[in-house]
Design brief:
The complex is a heterotrimer. Chain A is of the alpha/beta class. Chain A is built from seven helices and twelve strands. The relative contact order of chain A is 0.16. Chain B has helices at residues 8-24, 34-40, 42-52, 57-66, 71-82, 155-161, 189-198, 201-212, 281-294, 311-317, 320-328, 335-351, 357-361, and strands spanning 100-105, 220-236, 241-257, 270-277. By secondary structure, chain B is of the alpha+beta class. Helix content of chain B is 38%, strand content 13%. Chain B is globular, with a radius of gyration of 26 Å. Chain B has a four-stranded antiparallel β-sheet with strand order 1-2-3-4. Classes of the chains: A alpha/beta, B alpha+beta, C alpha/beta.
Chain lengths: 289, 362, 187
């Protein structure tokens, strides 16, 4: 049931229009961070207020919404955000990637391939990929305007010189359509290849930092690298212990205090789906059937 | 056997119930009313109004009660409520010259037209715990007498008349509003002042203090500090004139700062300005010091690299709601990022030949 | 009922949400055509163009009516339903009209190097016709054919990317979009 004390999807219409205009400009200039007058939301900054505002501006009554945090539908913040939209938008929700028309995510891209009928909204903490190299907004804005991305390459190269590899494992910077360097949000670099050429619309919202950016479908997104040190998506070198999947991103779970551990899909819906279809992993319970 | 944790929803609900119980505390002790907080915790209420950017003592008191006295949490409640309110109109600028003064002091002149009024201040209290307040306190009455009705002009205006003060041109320009437009750098002075007025008192205090200790020193004197009620007026187009729609309590501070002059300006005094809702004296003084420090560029002063001179640094970090949200978000799950870091560290160690013991054991 | 007072969204939040999704899909997938409904503005403003305005324009977005659409009835309808202040070509966030009436288009804001988003969105009322252009770029899997009012102006607009204006093409109750990122080639 929708909470009648608030407008559909919480935000007032004027605020939604402002966010909608920013999203459209974001789509028109893929990878460019559009400033927007982020509102104070009834949840803390840093907890998905940007994603929530983008979702609120996009949500239609017919939508089926999925909210994930770390790949899982049942993490507390995902539960909290899903409840918020059930309450203020009255929309149907789901835990199944394939059923959802709009997915808000924190830190993961679902394993199940997305379709043209889906929108993926990312929660972004620090939208500026150059921020940790240059803290000043006035400077980074100039760097984007002039395509001065040398500093980023220097940083990555220094990693290689020091560690023999690029020491960035999540929020790994990408270049969009050969123009803007973009922060893909803190997804593991394992997910980076899924950013490129996706049939779905991908929207990024950073509430505290007041930025929205976007990737239209079928946009070319390249992870920054060097010829002699090509980008490598990586994951734990195991298969899922519950569903046996060998190609998914895994969470490492500590099972006892003697060094015991297991690896399970971080995408809980994907893993449950595989188990339901009869796939089994190293530590699956004996089949009852 | 491992089963992925479920039940986030139930856990959240239980946590909220527990929170409610803790907020109430021992039910043998009478519950605080919102009116009691509004009347007896006025300075906390004022701080919540100022940093929440909403002048409503009842709602601020309610927020304090709901937040168990956590003032930043209370400010957050007010901000989240405020952002949903429709905007009907904008008031005229308040005229602090016509303030009904409860406190007015100047550090620069011994006596001034309109007089110095100490008002309800802690300044000369000896900070000794008053154990009588632990018992049911009586209601102390202050002696009062009629105001003599003489005007209290702004003290800096007196210096202004002698041409010793930097001139300040009035403008009809609508100031920007950072609650409606994204903060943009470089920020104009009205925008900076708005950010400072909403900013965290503790942050501004530290920034201001750092300028006094030499990090962007501006040699400030409190030219005038005044606290009192100001009428809020609104133009009603149908009527063709402004009507008073209410009254708010404000604290205003103007500092006088030494200025040696520049290529274009003769030596004169300059100002720092602070205006805060409610009785928020520490904040108003801090604000005026920080405002003055941030003006180095327009006044042609040297940038010494002091934090208080750095507008981006000050404005992007003064908002306690932004700060606390981002700070506290690191307690949210970060399994995925952490896992990718784990893999990276293991890989780098393998490549460096320092085998991870865990990996070796496997 | 007065034409100026009628023809707005019956249920603003829901109608605007659905209309925005069409605007969003269109801008994300240049050249594809989407139906939009909700507004019933006075002619010659099409229901599609009217719906875009109700969805995106308001008192904070200056609107330029090209001569083809600068009529008292449209002015009144705009004033009542979206309150967008009318303005000249150079300061407009949104521009409405047919292509001929919009000329020359280099008057419209195309953003700055620092803020390429500060650019105009053109809502171009179209006649029906066969595709005359092949579009490629972000949002398009391989290529898509579309009807444009001309080719050269859009080639020029794409050439200054990331600057440039963005367009909605409207006819009746249908919209498609042509953002500055789209590469245009004559068929």
């Amino acid at each position: 049931m929708t909470d009648q004390a608030y407008n559909f999807a919480y935000l007032d219409e004027a605020t939604k229009r402002m966010i909608r205009r920013a999203i459209l400009k974001g789509l028109a200039v893929p990878g460019y961070q559009v400033p927007f007058a982020s509102r104070e939301m009834p949840m803390p900054y840093g907890w998905g207020t940007g994603g929530v505002q983008v979702t609120a501006a996009c949500l239609a009554p017919e939508d089926i919404l999925k909210v994930i945090d770390q790949g899982a539908d049942d993490t507390t913040n995902a539960v909290s955000i899903r409840k918020f939209f059930e309450r203020t938008g009255g929309v149907e929700t789901t835990e199944h990637t394939a059923e959802a028309t709009l997915i808000q995510t924190r830190h993961r891209i679902p394993e199940h391939p997305l379709t043209e009928d889906q929108i993926l909204v990312y929660q972004v903490p620090i939208p500026e990929p150059l921020r940790f190299l240059e803290p000043r907004e006035s400077e980074t804005r100039k760097m984007h305007a002039l395509q001065e991305y040398g500093l980023m390459h220097v940083k990555l190269y220094e990693d290689i010189a020091r560690h023999g590899a690029i020491a960035t494992s999540y929020a790994y910077p990408v270049k969009v359509e050969g123009r803007y360097v973009m922060d893909p949000s803190p997804i593991p670099k394992f997910d980076n290849p899924k950013l490129s050429g996706s049939p779905a619309i991908q929207l990024f919202g950073a509430g505290r930092e007041q930025r929205i950016y976007a990737l239209p479908p079928y946009t070319e997104v390249v992870s920054l690298d060097f010829e002699d040190h090509p980008f490598e998506p990586s994951k734990a070198d195991h298969a899922c212990d519950l569903c046996g999947a060998a190609e998914t991103y895994l969470d490492e779970v500590i099972t006892d205090d003697r060094g015991g551990r297991m690896f399970v899909c971080s995408d809980t819906d994907y893993c449950t789906g595989r188990q339901a279809a009869g796939h089994r992993g190293r530590l699956s319970p004996e089949d009852a059937a | 056997m491992y089963v992925a944790t479920k039940g986030g929803e139930r856990a959240i609900e239980a946590a909220h119930q527990w929170l409610g119980e803790m907020r109430r505390g021992d039910t043998e002790v009478p519950e605080l009313s919102v009116a009691q907080i509004r009347e007896q915790m006025t300075l906390a209420v004022n701080r919540v109004m100022a940093e929440g950017s909403l002048y409503d003592p009842d709602l601020a008191a309610l927020a304090i009660k709901q937040a168990r006295g956590d003032l930043i949490e209370a400010v957050f409640l007010i901000r989240a409520y405020r952002t949903t309110l429709p905007r009907f109109a904008a008031s005229l600028p308040v005229d602090t010259d016509r303030m009904e003064i409860t406190r007015r002091i100047s550090a620069t002149f011994k006596d001034v037209p309109g007089g110095q009024i100490l008002g309800p201040t802690f300044d000369y209290t000896h900070r000794l715990l008053d154990f009588a307040l632990m018992a049911d306190g009586n209601a102390p009455r202050a002696e009062s007498r009629e105001a003599d009705g003489s005007p209290s002009p702004h003290i800096l205006a007196l210096l202004d008349r002698d041409g010793l003060m930097e001139p300040l041109a009035a403008t009809d320009e609508t100031p920007p509003d950072l609650t409606r437009e994204p903060l943009e750098m470089p920020a104009s002075r009205p925008l900076r002042l708005q950010a400072l007025a909403r900013g965290d008192e503790g942050f501004l205090l530290s920034m201001a203090y750092s300028t006094q200790r030499g990090y962007g020193r501006t040699h400030a004197f409190v030219g005038e500090l005044r606290i009192g009620a100001c009428a809020v007026e609104m133009d009603i187009p149908e009527l063709g004139f402004a009507v008073e729609i209410g009254e708010i309590e404000l604290t205003e501070c103007e500092t006088v700062n030494q200025f040696n002059g520049s290529k274009t300006e003769p030596p004169q005094f300059t100002r720092g300005y602070g205006l805060v809702m409610g009785q928020s004296e520490r904040k108003a003084i801090s604000m005026s010091l920080v405002d003055r420090a941030l003006r180095w560029e327009e006044l042609g002063e040297e940038n010494t690299g002091a934090p208080a001179q750095d507008a981006e640094f000050v404005l992007y970090h003064s908002d306690n709601i932004q700060a606390t949200g981002f700070l506290e978000h690191i307690k949210l799950p970060h399994y995925v990022d952490f896992q990718s870091e784990l893999e990276l560290i293991r890989k780098l160690r393998r490549e460096a030949g320092s085998d991870d013991r865990q990996e070796a054991a496997e | 009922m007065d034409v100026a007072l009628s023809g707005g969204f019956a249920r603003p939040a829901e109608h605007a949400a659905r209309a925005f999704r069409a605007c969003l899909q269109a801008m994300a997938r240049p050249g594809r055509i989407y139906p939009v409904t909700g507004a019933e503005p006075p002619a010659p403003l099409s229901p599609a163009a009217g719906t875009i305005l109700l969805t995106l324009a308001d008192s904070t977005t200056p609107l330029h009516l090209a001569p083809s659409h600068d009529t008292p009835a449209i002015r009144q309808w705009i004033a009542f339903h979206c309150a967008a202040p009318l303005t000249g070509a150079g300061t407009a966030t949104f521009v409405v009209g047919n292509w001929a009436a919009m000329q020359p288009v280099d008057r419209f804001a195309r953003g700055t190097a620092d803020y390429p988003d500060r650019s105009a969105t053109l809502i171009i009322e179209m006649e029906e016709g066969d595709p005359n252009a092949r579009l490629t770029g972000p949002g398009i899997e391989t290529a898509i054919d579309a009807r444009l009012p001309e080719i050269t102006a859009f080639e020029a607009n794409n050439a200054v990317f990331p600057l440039g204006f963005d367009c909605y093409l409207t006819h009746g109750d249908r919209i498609s979009a042509l953002p500055r990122s789209t590469r245009v080639e004559a068929l």
